[in-house]
Structure formats: structure tokens, C-alpha cells
């Protein structure tokens, strides 16, 4: 006897959802393809060594296993790092432009007791070799378009730039501990505790004022840009303002700027972003569904210095939302079931072929008991909810309608084009 | 669009509701004895519900509530991905290590700690380099050292009366605790026209 339980954090995908998932993946992949991205795939297993020095993923969150040589492997916990390596291996020339798209499952061994999914289905893009605001703009635009593609309207992209805070802190000579504490408070927009913490630090009042303003730098891009300009104390901070306003301008040209808000409270604690980073939200969906940004230092670790920018969409989260809002693509292909008595086998298979040739689904069953029993059991089966039933008996074809058998001359050969 | 508050049951909720009323929201159907679960204000723009305090960060993190009001102790014990935007300075108390005055904590020796806050206690003693056995209790924590279950306790102390009546004293203060206004990270962005003014109003009330 086998027990029918599943492991916490791992789920089956039901057939309706899987159908939708595939449709969405196909549509998004052709969207990315139309922008020049090549779809690739990397192995499910990676070496532990690849992630052990990467602060972005805590070592405890990795699923580890040992292979026959005693080597420690992990289940791929993120898509970006292996794809960056792949780009570095296949394209050793730093100046080359490489545009990759991917769809993959990643695995995180979250220790939290709640039912958090540990297998995450991601789709996304990585754009290597271009450090311009246009590249950032294209990546953000594709993130927005990915959600719009399926009729989701309440899309919000929260755009930040980790450089703004970093270039400010570089000038303040803070201890690593102070930096980390302030980063955490700023990410949580915890102004009260920042103020209390700043009291303990030896900083000039005007610098403290600037730090206190950081968590409030969010909202309408134009307003935030104005506020940012006032807080700049060095050229690098001014450069950030320039970059981010150029990206915003790019999105204005693409007519997507209305989906974008700014939040300069993102930091690069726990991620590898070096410049912009962004999160994508859908109204009434309490957690972000897209996460992305620019990571210019990652490829260097594989020996090829190369700027890069990309994002990942948490597909199953989006599908959960689409299901609530009735936005999922429906399986509307017609389904036909043909029953036959043993003498009519050849005819039955011919009828089925005719359906399939016209783009419908056809299944063939030999009648074993009574016709009524077959109809009854099939009607109870959710998988055959909208199926049309046919009976082939002694060379005659019948169709079923409200438990009545109606004779048919031939099958309806109206073509269904998918 | 409606803004939903999750409030921690108990004395903090009472003060939080007073704050909401002071901001001009009227909850006609609310009384302390009411068994209703959700209360909506007369304009239909704000509603609140009362839940056990450790559940508040969960409701807010998942987006079931836009705003939550809950003690810092709960946020430290159950960290959540939320914006912790205001210190409301209500429900003020201290997180303390308490025990017998004549038996101060002997650092270096293994310590048995009874507490409702295992995460906070572990973190505190860990940063001091002290090895501890934590016993998670769900109430009447003061009992533990009295009957020899633990050497000391980690708990919130408001007036100190319960400790005093049981012959216990505060040995060390860990941190100050007060109620915080937390906001769902997505709501703050997607409903900012509604949430920003509420936060500003709360700020002016402080």
C-alpha cells in the first residue's frame, strides 16, 4: 500500500492549469522571441560550490545532495547564475550582445513552517552585453508586456536603483554593522527606528536628514526624481538620477510609463543587483510576481566581465491570480468519444481519424457492457465534461443527446482551426 | 477600493480603534462585546478585523489586510516581509530577562530560559555568546523559575507587578517594545493614494 500524500511545498498541477500554463508559456516565449531572445535551458542540478560564495541565496535554502563521486550538488535555486555562466562559456568575447529567454523550475528549501512553495516555476529573460538605459527600458517593458499579454490590467512596476543609497553610504564611512542595520530599516521603511538608530551614530545633521528621507522616496516618478535631485551629495548620485530618468523616458516613449512607480528603498542586501532593480505587482495580489534588475558584476565571476539585465516571473503566482479573475485561457477544443461494437472497429477508427484531421480530439472505446452504462460512467467523469458521445453499431452512426440516440448520416466535418 | 486593517486583539486593539475614531472614522456596529468579525466604517472606505497578534503580520504579508497594528515583540518573533512604517508609541513596554535578584545570570554556564518568545530569547543570548536551552511556554511564564523549570524568563514587562508579586525581578533589559503600524508591500504601491493620507493622519495623531 502506498500512501497518497505529497511533500510540503510541492504540488501537482491539474490538467486545466497545465493547459493554461503551456498556453501562457508559448505566448510569452513568442513575445520574447519577437524581441530577439533565444530560448535556452540549463541543468536541474548545479554544484554546491557555485552557490556557496553567493550571498544572494542563504546556504540553508539550498536542496543539497551528494553524487556518486561524493560531490555536493544542489537543485538549481535560481536561473540567473547558471545562465550567466552559460553566456560566459559560449561567448567569451565581452562585447557580444546575448539575449536569452528561459522557462525553468527552481528549488528553494525554505525552512518556514507555513505552506510556502519550494518548487517555483519561472519564466524570464536575461540581456547580456548592453549597459545602456535602453537595455534596462526594454527589459522593464517586456516585464510589463508579459503581464498585459494575458489581459491583466492592474500592473505595477516598482523601479529602484541600489546605487543611490550605496553611493551615499560610500561617502559616510559607516561600519558594516551600521550599514546593514540601516539597509534593513530602509527596506522596511521603518523611519521611526532609523531616527532612533541615527541618534547613536556620529554623523552630521544634514547627512542624517538625507538618510531619513530615503524611505520616503517612492511614488510618482516625476515627484520622486525631483526629491532625489535635492538629496544628491556627489556626482555618482547625480549619475543615478540621470540614468533612472532616462529609463523612465524610454518607457514613456514605449507608452508604458503609466505602469511604473519609483521606490529608491531597494538595497542589494541578499541579491546581486548593482544598478536598477524592480519588482512587478498585480493589484490585490499581496506578493510581487516579477523580480528583476541589472547585475553587472556577476559575469565577471566566470571570467568574462559583461553587463547584464533581466527578470523572472513567478508563473504559478500569476496563474493563481488569473484563475481568480477568470483570465485563464480555456481549453475549448471539442472532444469526441466514439463507442463501437466489435464488428464496427474499422469504421470507428475511420470516424476518429476524420475528427482528428479536423483538429478535434477523438477517443475510441469498444462497448463491453450496455451503452447506457458507458454513457453514465463517462458523464460522471470530470475529464469528459463536455465530450460529445457517438455510437457505431452495425454500420450506423448515432449521436447521444439527453440520453437519446439520434441517427447520423456522417460526422460533422466542420473544420476547427486552432 | 477599501483599506483593510488587521488589529491585534487585546489592549492594543482598543487603543488602535480609539486612534481610528480620532481620525474621524465611525464604526457604528462596533462594541467591545460584539461578535462580528469585520467592522466597516460609515463611509465604507475603511474596515478592520481583530485577530490574535501573531497572525497580524501574516495577514498583512499575504495582502489579506493592507495595514496592521501590532506589537514590535510580535514582529521580532515572527519576522514578515512588510513595511514597518510607524512607531505608534502605544502599548509601550520592555522585553526583559527576569529572574531572582539574589541569583544573577551566570554567564558561561548553560542557562535554561522559559519564554513565549523563543526567537527573541535565542537571538539575544546568542549575540552575547551565551549557550541556552529555550523552553517555549504559552502563558504564565513567571511560573517557570518559581518551580525550577527554568533559571530565568524572557518576557514583556509593562508595570512589573506580576513579576513583583511572584518575587521576580528584571535582570536585564533586551529592548523597548511598542505598537507598530505595518503595511503590505504591494498595497503601499498599488493603493498609495488611499494609504498615504491614512499614514499621515496617524502621524499627526501621535
UniProtKB/TrEMBL annotation, chain A:
Taxonomy, superkingdom: Bacteria
The keyword Membrane is annotated on this UniProt entry: no
Lineage: Bacteria, Bacillati, Bacillota, Clostridia, Eubacteriales
GO biological process, one term: histidyl-tRNA aminoacylation
Xref: PANTHER family: HISTIDINE--TRNA LIGASE, MITOCHONDRIAL-RELATED, HISTIDYL-TRNA SYNTHETASE
GO cellular component entries: cytoplasm
Subunit structure as annotated in this protein's UniProt entry: Heteromultimer composed of HisG and HisZ subunits.
Subcellular location: Cytoplasm
Pathway annotation: Amino-acid biosynthesis; L-histidine biosynthesis; L-histidine from 5-phospho-alpha-D-ribose 1-diphosphate: step 1/9
Family: Belongs to the class-II aminoacyl-tRNA synthetase family. HisZ subfamily.
Name the UniProt record assigns to this protein: ATP phosphoribosyltransferase regulatory subunit
Positions with a binding annotation for L-histidine: 78-80, 108, 122, 126, 272-273
Keywords for the protein's UniProt record, in alphabetical order: Amino-acid biosynthesis, Cytoplasm, Glycosyltransferase, Histidine biosynthesis, Transferase
From TrEMBL, chain B:
Keyword Amino-acid biosynthesis among record annotations: yes
Record pathway: Amino-acid biosynthesis; L-histidine biosynthesis; L-histidine from 5-phospho-alpha-D-ribose 1-diphosphate: step 1/9
Function: Catalyzes the condensation of ATP and 5-phosphoribose 1-diphosphate to form N'-(5'-phosphoribosyl)-ATP (PR-ATP). Has a crucial role in the pathway because the rate of histidine biosynthesis seems to be controlled primarily by regulation of HisG enzymatic activity.
PROSITE patterns per record: ATP_P_PHORIBOSYLTR
EC number(s) given by UniProt: 2.4.2.17
An example Gene Ontology biological process: L-histidine biosynthetic process
Organism: Acetobacterium paludosum
Cellular component aspect of the GO annotation: cytoplasm
Top enzyme class: transferase
Matches recorded under Pfam families: HisG (PF01634)
Keywords for the protein's UniProt record, in alphabetical order: Amino-acid biosynthesis, ATP-binding, Cytoplasm, Glycosyltransferase, Histidine biosynthesis, Nucleotide-binding, Transferase
Similarity annotation: Belongs to the ATP phosphoribosyltransferase family. Short subfamily.
Free-text comment on this protein's domains from its UniProt entry: Lacks the C-terminal regulatory region which is replaced by HisZ.
Protein name per Swiss-Prot or TrEMBL: ATP phosphoribosyltransferase
Record carries keyword Nucleotide-binding: yes
Domain ATP phosphoribosyltransferase catalytic, residue spans: 53-203
Gene3D superfamilies referenced in this protein's UniProt entry, alphabetically: Periplasmic binding protein-like II
GO molecular function, one term: ATP binding
Subunit structure: Heteromultimer composed of HisG and HisZ subunits.
Main location: cytoplasm
InterPro entries reported for this sequence: ATP_PRibTrfase_cat, ATP_PRibTrfase_CS, ATP_PRibTrfase_HisG, ATP_PRibTrfase_HisG_short
Location(s), subcellular: Cytoplasm
Catalyzed reactions per annotation: 1-(5-phospho-beta-D-ribosyl)-ATP + diphosphate = 5-phospho-alpha-D-ribose 1-diphosphate + ATP
Amino acid at each position: 500500500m502506498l500512501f497518497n500524500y505529497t511533500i510540503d511545498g510541492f504540488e501537482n498541477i491539474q490538467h486545466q492549469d497545465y493547459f493554461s500554463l503551456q498556453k501562457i508559456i508559448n505566448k510569452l516565449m513568442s513575445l520574447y522571441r519577437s524581441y530577439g531572445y533565444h530560448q535556452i535551458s540549463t541543468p536541474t542540478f548545479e554544484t554546491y560550490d557555485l552557490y556557496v560564495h553567493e550571498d544572494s541565496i542563504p546556504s540553508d535554502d539550498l536542496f543539497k545532495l551528494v553524487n556518486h563521486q561524493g560531490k555536493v550538488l544542489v537543485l538549481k535555486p535560481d536561473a540567473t547564475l547558471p545562465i550567466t555562466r552559460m553566456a560566459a562559456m559560449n561567448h567569451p568575447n565581452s562585447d557580444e550582445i546575448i539575449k536569452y529567454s528561459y522557462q525553468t523550475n527552481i528549488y528553494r528549501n525554505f525552512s518556514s513552517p507555513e505552506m510556502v512553495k519550494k518548487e517555483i516555476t519561472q519564466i524570464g529573460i536575461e540581456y547580456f552585453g548592453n549597459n545602456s538605459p535602453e537595455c534596462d527600458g526594454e527589459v522593464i517593458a517586456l516585464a510589463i508586456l508579459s503581464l498585459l499579454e494575458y489581459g491583466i490590467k492592474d500592473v505595477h512596476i516598482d523601479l529602484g536603483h541600489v546605487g543611490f543609497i550605496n553611493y551615499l553610504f560610500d561617502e559616510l564611512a559607516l561600519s558594516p554593522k551600521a550599514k546593514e542595520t540601516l539597509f534593513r530599516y530602509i527596506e522596511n521603511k521603518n523611519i521611526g527606528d532609523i531616527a532612533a538608530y541615527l541618534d547613536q551614530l556620529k554623523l552630521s545633521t544634514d547627512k542624517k536628514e538625507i538618510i531619513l528621507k530615503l524611505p520616503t522616496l517612492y511614488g510618482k516618478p516625476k515627484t520622486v526624481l525631483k526629491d532625489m535631485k535635492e538629496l544628491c551629495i556627489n556626482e555618482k548620485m547625480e549619475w543615478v538620477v540621470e540614468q533612472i530618468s532616462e529609463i523612465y523616458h524610454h518607457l514613456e516613449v514605449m507608452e508604458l510609463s503609466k505602469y511604473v512607480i519609483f521606490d529608491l528603498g531597494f538595497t542589494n542586501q541578499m541579491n546581486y543587483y548593482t544598478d536598477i532593480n524592480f519588482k512587478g505587482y498585480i493589484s490585490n495580489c499581496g506578493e510581487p510576481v516579477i523580480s528583476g534588475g541589472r547585475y553587472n558584476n556577476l559575469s565577471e565571476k566566470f571570467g568574462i566581465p559583461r553587463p547584464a539585465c533581466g527578470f523572472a516571473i513567478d508563473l504559478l503566482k500569476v496563474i493563481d491570480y488569473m484563475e481568480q479573475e477568470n483570465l485563464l485561457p480555456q481549453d475549448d477544443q471539442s472532444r469526441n468519444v466514439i463507442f463501437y461494437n466489435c464488428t464496427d472497429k474499422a469504421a470507428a477508427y475511420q470516424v476518429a481519424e476524420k475528427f482528428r484531421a479536423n483538429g478535434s480530439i477523438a477517443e475510441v472505446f469498444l462497448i463491453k457492457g450496455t451503452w447506457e452504462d458507458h454513457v453514465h460512467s463517462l458523464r460522471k467523469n470530470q475529464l469528459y465534461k463536455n465530450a460529445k458521445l457517438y455510437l457505431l453499431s452495425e454500420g450506423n452512426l448515432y449521436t447521444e443527446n439527453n440520453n437519446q440516440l439520434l441517427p447520423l448520416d456522417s460526422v460533422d466535418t466542420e473544420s476547427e482551426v486552432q | 477600493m477599501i483599506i483593510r486593517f488587521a488589529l491585534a486583539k487585546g489592549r492594543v486593539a482598543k487603543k488602535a480603534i480609539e486612534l481610528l475614531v480620532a481620525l474621524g472614522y465611525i464604526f457604528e456596529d462596533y462594541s467591545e462585546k460584539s461578535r462580528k468579525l469585520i467592522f466597516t466604517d460609515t463611509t465604507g472606505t475603511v474596515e478592520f478585523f481583530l485577530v490574535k497578534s501573531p497572525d497580524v503580520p501574516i495577514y498583512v504579508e499575504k495582502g489579506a489586510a493592507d495595514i496592521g497594528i501590532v506589537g514590535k515583540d510580535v514582529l521580532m518573533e515572527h519576522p514578515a516581509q512588510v513595511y514597518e512604517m510607524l512607531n505608534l508609541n502605544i502599548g509601550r513596554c520592555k522585553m526583559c530577562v527576569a529572574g531572582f535578584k539574589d541569583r544573577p545570570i551566570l554567564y558561561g554556564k548553560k542557562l535554561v530560559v522559559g519564554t513565549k518568545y523563543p526567537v527573541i530569547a535565542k537571538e539575544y543570548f546568542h549575540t552575547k555568546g551565551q549557550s541556552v536551552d529555550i523552553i517555549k511556554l504559552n502563558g504564565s511564564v513567571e511560573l517557570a523559575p518559581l518551580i525550577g523549570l527554568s533559571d530565568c524568563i524572557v518576557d514583556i514587562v509593562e508595570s512589573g507587578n506580576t513579576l513583583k508579586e511572584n518575587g521576580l525581578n528584571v535582570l536585564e533589559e533586551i529592548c523597548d517594545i511598542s505598537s507598530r503600524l505595518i503595511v503590505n508591500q504591494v498595497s503601499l504601491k498599488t493603493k498609495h493614494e488611499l494609504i498615504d493620507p491614512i499614514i499621515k493622519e496617524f502621524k499627526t495623531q501621535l
